[in-house]
Design a protein that fits this description.
The protein is mostly helical. The protein has six helices and two strands, in the order ααββαααα. Helix content is 57%, strand content 3%. α1 packs across α3.
């Protein structure tokens, strides 16, 4: 099948298919004599796998590992489980960080009267140096394991 058919069958855009193939995430397709890429049903399955893993927030490097394990019929499920558990921990930490941000925003929104006057506690807080903010939200991302390989 051509790339458009693979895209339709997998729900992944042709541009992403080319990207996944160029990075080696998707196994290489064959080329027709006219230079067009030809995809097989296995490519569509791999693309669906990648799409689902991305929807669960797995970064590319972990998807690569999961794909390798999926392709290996003699894999140990403990390896797959370990990857999923690590990813869940990262997501839990992000969720806590986001909750901290939501709490700060709730505090700022409650402090703002939202009337026609120009004074606004939200803008005042945003303009403060971060060390002086009374309720500084936690940092999201950064240099931890969740910031790399996405």
């Amino acid at each position: 099948m051509l790339i458009g058919e693979a895209a339709q069958g997998s729900g992944v855009s042709a541009k992403l298919i080319r990207y996944y193939e160029s990075t080696g995430l998707l196994s290489a397709s064959h080329r027709h004599s006219n230079g067009y890429r030809l995809y097989e049903e296995r490519h569509v399955h791999e693309l669906r796998f990648i799409k689902r893993a991305r929807s669960l927030g797995f970064p590319i490097r972990e998807i690569r590992s999961l794909l390798d394990l999926w392709r290996n019929k003699r894999r140990a499920s403990s390896k797959v489980r370990a990857i999923a558990m690590r990813h869940r921990s990262v997501l839990e930490e992000r969720a806590r960080s986001y909750q901290g941000i939501i709490d700060v925003l709730d505090h700022l929104i409650a402090a703002c009267k939202g009337d026609d006057r120009p004074d606004c506690p939200i803008l005042e807080d945003l303009s403060r140096p971060s060390a002086r903010s009374s309720r500084r939200p936690p940092r999201i991302g950064g240099s931890g394991p969740s910031a790399k390989g996405s």
